[in-house]
Amino acid sequence: MKAVRFLALSVLLLGASRVDAQQYFGQNQVQYKHFKWRVLETEHFLVHYYPEEKAAVSAAARMAERSYARLSKVLGHQFREKKPIILFSSRADFGQNNVTGDLGEGTGGVTESGRHRLILPFTGDLGSFEHVLAHEMVHEFQYDVFARGKAGGGQATLERVNPPLWFMEGMAEYLSIGPSHPLTAGWLRDAAVAGNIPTIKQMTDRPDKYFPYRFGESFWQYVGERWGDAAIGEILRNTPAVGVERAFFRELGLPLTDVGAAWREAVQSQYLPAASSYQRPQTFAQPLLTHRKSGGEIFLAPSFSNDGRYIAFLSNGNQKRGELFIDLWLGDGRTGERVKRLVKSTLNPDFEELRLLYSQSAFSNDEKTLAFTAMR
Predict the structure, then answer these.
(1) Three-class SS of residue 210?
(2) CATH top-level class for 1-157?
(3) Phi and psi dihedrals of 212, rounded to 5?
(4) Higher pLDDT, 235 or 103
(5) What are the φ and ψ backbone dihedral angles of 308, each rounded to 5 degrees?
(6) Alpha carbon distance 242, 272 (integer Å)
(7) DSSP-assigned letter for residue 280
(8) Where in the chain are the domains?
């Protein structure tokens, strides 16, 4: 997802960023802290940090160099100059950056195409942090290739070539995660069963409908398995000069549309035979939280009380009543109907945010209280 042109964002959930936050950036960005920046210099990076995160910055620097060593070999490209990495100790601190402003917790990291700055927060989970770092590192390589090794260049080439999101984000996901990713496998299985595996044109024209992270990752996984990961590097390096379609044909000897058709067939062959033996959920269960029963469109982190009478969940509500933002709700555990809104996060000054991607509700053992915990 790109909030501004050629600004690569590692997004964990579509629509998690508020529009007013996305437009609030630059020197007018509200800052609650004054960060005393330091720089840790490595072989290929200038890692910017402040004292509160000193204990973790060395580990981050090692991860960055490890990703660089692998990606430079796969993509056949090396940096000519050291790239800046700007680390924040938390998501709240990251939201105070004056490059993009607060893009919401759905954004795990940012890479600029112009100055090649890689900006991301520590998450407390080294696994997810390294994934986001490696994902953004792929964008560093992409932009460096387009800029011919010089930060500040390549903007005109990017605008002329206009690589689609499945090309950029899908490549970053595949090269940061690898060939085995259960989340993407679930997406592609469901798409195959529903007969909704997109063509290349559909992925290019409708990234809002065909999520480029998942479908693009699967496509590049197919290319890597069939022609080898080195072919991905060749395609990337050829793209600035000849464009996406000709780069594919030059390296693979096939039109891009044919490669896309072969990928679609491979996905169907992989998932449809097994899916035919699955029992569909509606044959043995009914959905509890739905728009018709519960109102709203988004339902996250559900938790039943011990006796099953109640269910707690994160959700938006009725737009006519102004329930536009996601809050914590209590519902009937048998009908799915809402009973009460437990938290009004947008109206309560004690709440910074619900951290909806990392939070979970839970009832106490005596079922007299409902605990809400946010992982930090």
Answers:
(1) coil
(2) alpha beta
(3) -65, -25
(4) 235
(5) 80, 5
(6) 36
(7) P
(8) 1-157, 163-278, 283-374
